[in-house]
Amino acid sequence: MVFSSKLIEDAVTEFAKLPGIGKKTALRMVLQLLKMDEGRVDAFTNAVSRMRHEVKFCHTCHNVSDGEVCAICASPGRNKSQVCIVENIRDVIAIESTQQYNGLYHVLGGIISPLDGIGPEQLNIATLQQRVSEAGVSELIMALSPNIEGDTTVFYISRMMKDKNVLITTIARGIAFGGELEYADELTLAKSIAKRLPVENYVNTR
Amino acid sequence: MVFSSKLIEDAVTEFAKLPGIGKKTALRMVLQLLKMDEGRVDAFTNAVSRMRHEVKFCHTCHNVSDGEVCAICASPGRNKSQVCIVENIRDVIAIESTQQYNGLYHVLGGIISPLDGIGPEQLNIATLQQRVSEAGVSELIMALSPNIEGDTTVFYISRMMKDKNVLITTIARGIAFGGELEYADELTLAKSIAKRLPVENYVNTR
């Protein structure tokens, strides 16, 4: 792409560094910003700049936070005996958006993946151990990806918590609501038959 | 989507204002920026901010420019007797990227569209008339969209230039290179047969 303005070219190059943004999409965004009022563009750059410079990570659960402790950990209305273990911040947002979970979180910052050189010491696992020992945590809910790395992480944390008096659960796997049986993968379908529930239970949980 | 950080939420909201960016894509970009070094994020926001505040529009052709006159109009190597008339800046970038055109441009800033309330006076047409009268322009190449609005604009400009000694041409329409005949729309196919070229001509222009 040939630009007649270095300023435009620089802005396009910066946008194209973001994930999933090619040069053409970057150009579309830059031209849109060029059309917007200067004040609105300032609002955009300020929001991005403040986000990067001022966002903190919660000392307790490692979630993104505006202060030392995140709004979820600080909330008096949440059940502090339940901790949901997730891989990253996006998972927290996804679970929070269901508005069905009232416990706390613990963001690992990844999952154990020896092939990628990620072991337990690269993750926020030591602070989890400390948290379970010190605070009155009675249940750890594992909400990790259903793959080998996720299973390894679940197994590692379960073994670590063996001598602690804490219940370890994982989120249910099965056919998604609205999912067509015929398009489900074999493993999920097989598991969902093996782990079938009595109908009254199904109706209650729906 | 529920966020535990207002800073993240604000940045996501700002990104989601850009065209074609939903909340999920916006979040992915924000989390990517959060992972990047502060210096690189500053480079991003500075490039966007400078682009918006410092980009100028060329006084001659209305293309984006870093100064009063754009690099294309200022270039001594370009053929100043040819002016290609385009709708917007994106079209200039597309034609420049072919590296096959060596004349100048004139960016209209839109096309005549009475339904959208865009008449000739909303476009950069007066300056075009002045340009043709003053500078030694011998050819106007119309590179506008092949629809009613584009045709109306071509017709309007042609009539305006009637008593000026200037050749008016339009870019060729036809089946695209690499296009399959069977998938071409009927109008394009019909026109490409009506405007067929002798084979030696075809070979030369390829």
List key phrases describing it:
homodimer, alpha/beta, Helicase, Ruva Protein, domain 3, Dna Topoisomerase Vi A Subunit, Chain: A, domain 2, 2 domains, two-stranded antiparallel sheet, 9 helices, 6 strands, globular
Question: What's this entry about, in short?
Answer:
With 206 residues, the first copy, chain A, is α/β, with parallel strands linked by helices.
Structure write-up:
The structure is a homodimer of 206-residue chains. In chain A, 26% of the residues are buried. The longest helix of chain A has 17 residues, at 38-54. In chain A, helix 1 (6-15) crosses helix 2 (23-35). Chain A is globular. Chain A folds into two domains: 6-54, RecR Domain 1 (Helicase, Ruva Protein, domain 3, Orthogonal Bundle), CATH 1.10.8; 57-170, Dna Topoisomerase Vi A Subunit, Chain: A, domain 2 (3-Layer(aba) Sandwich), CATH 3.40.1360. Chain A has helices at 6-15, 23-35, 38-54, 71-74, 89-98, 126-134, 148-160, 186-194, 199-205, and strands at 56-57, 64-65, 79-86, 103-107, 139-142, 167-170. In chain A, helix 5 (89-98) links the parallel strand 3 (79-86) and strand 4. Chain A has a four-stranded parallel β-sheet with strand order 4-3-5-6. A two-stranded antiparallel ribbon of chain A has the order 1-2. In chain A, 45% of the residues lie in helices and 12% in strands. The N and C termini of chain A lie far apart (53 Å). Chain A is of the alpha/beta class and 206 residues long. Chains A and B meet through helix 1, helix 2, helix 3, strand 2 and helix 5 of A and helix 1, helix 2, helix 3, strand 2 and helix 5 of B.
